[in-house]
């Protein structure tokens, strides 16, 4: 049933007069237009439109996960919106294929007219990074020094104010810290999980020592590796050791949040944990897809300009390679697989805990 009282006209609804009149190549100001500059502009404008939609989704998710109590039905909505971000990220990567139809010489026809414009100055992408949790203190050194230096005062102040506010990383960390099932009455999960880990590692050590097919050197190497694994597990259960590694940057989430995330991964088949598990996996996927996008962007830049510096003054390809490897949002969730043990070794939960986790 029609609800509008005034007819809606397609070009006006989409404001196509503004949108289609927003491509003005810089090259025309200095002579003949460089043909591929229009493609360059449209692809980057499309990026900014998709960034706007990603921000729209994050701004809807963040208040939900920031509440002191998050209802299960809200987790479902959050997961659907995270899934939408995944699909947008796929499009962001695919757009690079279109941009790579431009050859390096085509790019050089207009590149020098763009100085000092740079992707550094994408306020929306910086906002996405900050809202997901990549604030200045967690960036590579070049970013720490130059993250704001290429922005005008208004944009710089806006982003600096945003850094002082809770991010999605912060909201997820606090949400995980509140999970009630780690201690339930007399049940303390980490006591029995620690025993299961000790049994598993002791078995692995015996297998290695009894392995006649390994040379002494191979045994020594693998036993040392097993000892390192043991030390990593010890830090998981020992708050003092954990906080020391956190200070060193090995962990970012609190011990409580990491343990809760691990519990969710280990017992994801339980009805009440299925939605939270999907949420954690979605955050990992967002991180992975942005890493893929950064990598594709890095290889495209190498293909286009080789080892030249970027138009914004960065080291070009080398800088982008470093951001691909280091500018991550949810590294702790990626690393949870370090602490997974086989289902056959997983402690059985008490009946009262299983009952509490059923709707």
UniProtKB/TrEMBL annotation:
Entry-linked Pfam families: Trp_dioxygenase
Swiss-Prot/TrEMBL keywords: Dioxygenase, Heme, Iron, Metal-binding, Oxidoreductase, Tryptophan catabolism
Superkingdom assignment: Bacteria
Gene3D superfamilies: 1.10.287.3810, 1.20.58.480
Positions contributing to substrate binding: 40-44, 111, 311
EC number per UniProt: 1.13.11.11
InterPro entries recorded: Trp/Indoleamine_2_3_dOase-like, Trp_2_3_dOase
Molecular function per GO: heme binding; L-tryptophan 2,3-dioxygenase activity; metal ion binding
Pathway named in the protein's UniProt entry: Amino-acid degradation; L-tryptophan degradation via kynurenine pathway; L-kynurenine from L-tryptophan: step 1/2
Binding partners and assembly: Homotetramer.
Function: Heme-dependent dioxygenase that catalyzes the oxidative cleavage of the L-tryptophan (L-Trp) pyrrole ring and converts L-tryptophan to N-formyl-L-kynurenine. Catalyzes the oxidative cleavage of the indole moiety.
Similarity field: Belongs to the tryptophan 2,3-dioxygenase family.
Protein name (record): Tryptophan 2,3-dioxygenase
Organism: Kangiella koreensis (strain DSM 16069 / JCM 12317 / KCTC 12182 / SW-125)
Gene name per UniProt: kynA
